[in-house]
Amino acid sequence: MKRIAWLLFAVPALCIAQVPSRDFDIEGHRGARGLAPENTLAAFRRALTIGVTTIETDIAVTKDLVPVISHNPNLVPELTRDSDGHWLAHPGPSIHSLTLDELRRYDIGRLNPQTNYARDFPQQQAADGERFPTLRELFDLVAGYPTVRLNIETKLTPDNAGDTVDAATFVRVIVDAVRDAKLVDRVTIQSFDWRTLVEVKRVAPDVKTSCLTIESNGMNTMAAPDGKSPWHAGLSARDYPSIPALVKAAGCSTWSMFWRNLTPTLVQQAHAIGVVVLPWTVNETADMQKLIDMGVDGIISDYPDRLRDVVIKRRDTQ
After folding, report:
1. CA torsion, points 91, 94, 98, 99, in degrees to nearest 10?
2. What's the rounded Cα separation, in Å, for the pair 46 and 134?
C-alpha cells in the first residue's frame, strides 16, 4: 500500500532507552511455541511457569460449534499425526468439517522432524499425546492464575469462506464461552480480519479487541487495490491520518502489528490517541530491546522466557 500522510509527521527517534513499566505485557505466542508444541495445554502450562502476563492463542470452530485452539483452520502435516501415529502426508480436512470427537483423534504433541518448521524450533520439547484443546480447557487452566490475560485470535480470512464459520457465528461461540467462564475482564479478541472485531464490539462492547496488521511480501493486510482493504471490515485507510487512527475507528484498543513494520513515529501516534502498541512475533533479544526503546506496551514472543529476562534486566539496571 502506498504510504500515506502520517509518515510526513515523523518525529525524532527516541534517544533515551525506555524502561518497561511494571505492567509491560509479556505475551507467550501460541503459548510458548519455541519451547513446547504450539497451542497445546503443554505450551500453555510452560508459559504460565515462565510468568507470562498474557497467553496468546488462536481459535477454530468445529462442526459441532465447539471453539477449539488451532492456528490453522485445517490439519497440517507439520504437526499432526493420525490415530495410528503417522504424520499426515498432505494438508488434512478443515477443523470445521470435523466434530470435536473426530478432531481429538489427532496427536499434535510434536513437530514432524522432517519439516523446516521443526528445524526452526530446535528447542521445542515434544509432549506426545497432546490433543487440540478446547477454549474451555484453556479457561480452566488459567483459573488459578487470576492476573493472567488471554489474547484470542479468530482464524478466518476474507477469502476462506467454507473453511470455517461465518464471522458472526465465530464471535458468538467465543463470546458465549468467555461470558460462561466469567472472563470478560481478562480476554482480548484479536484478528487480521476485522469483521469479527467489529462484530465483537457490536454484541459485546465490554470485550476488548486488538486489530492485527502486516505489511510484507508474503502477506499485506494494508494493501488496498480498490481503495479498501478486504481485511478492514469496510473501513478505508485513506479516510484516516494514520494506521493507529484506522485501528481506533474499528473499535480496537490495541494495535498489534508485524514488528518489522513498527516505527517510533507510529508508536507516538498510537499513544497520542490512547491505542496500545503490541508488536508480534519477536524472538531475538536485540529486537526486543529495540522495540522497548521505542516505547511499546508489550511484545508477543515464541520465547517468553527470553522476553521476561530482557524486561527484568532492564528494570534492574535502570
Report:
1. 130
2. 17
* Domains of the chain, CATH where assigned: 5-317 (3.20.20.190)
pTM over 0.90: yes
- At residue 153, what is the residue type? E
Question: Does pLDDT of 142 surpass 60?
Answer: yes
Give me the helix-helix angle, 41-50 and 135-142, nearest 10°. Answer: 30
Report yes or no: 278 and 297 within 8 Å, Cβ to Cβ.
Answer: yes
Task: For residue 144, give every residue at least 6 positions away whose Cβ sits within 8 Å of its Cβ, in sequence order, or none.
Answer: none
| Residue 227 grid cell | 481503495
b vs e for 248-273, b when ≥16 Cβ sit within 10 Å of the residue's Cβ? bbbbbebbbbbbeebebbbbbbbeee
Alpha-helical segments (H) within the chain: 41-50, 100-103, 116-120, 135-142, 167-180, 194-203, 243-249, 264-272, 285-294, 304-317
Between 43-57, 87-101, 127-141, 157-171, the lowest mean confidence (pLDDT) is in: 157-171
Q: Which phi and psi angles does 120 have, rounded to 5°?
A: -75, -20
Query: Cα–Cα distance between 38 and 24 in angstroms, integer?
Result: 23
Query: Given CA atoms 277, 278, 279, 283 in this order, what sign does their dihedral have?
Result: positive
> Beta partners for 188?
151, 208
Rounded CA separation 54/56 (Å): 6
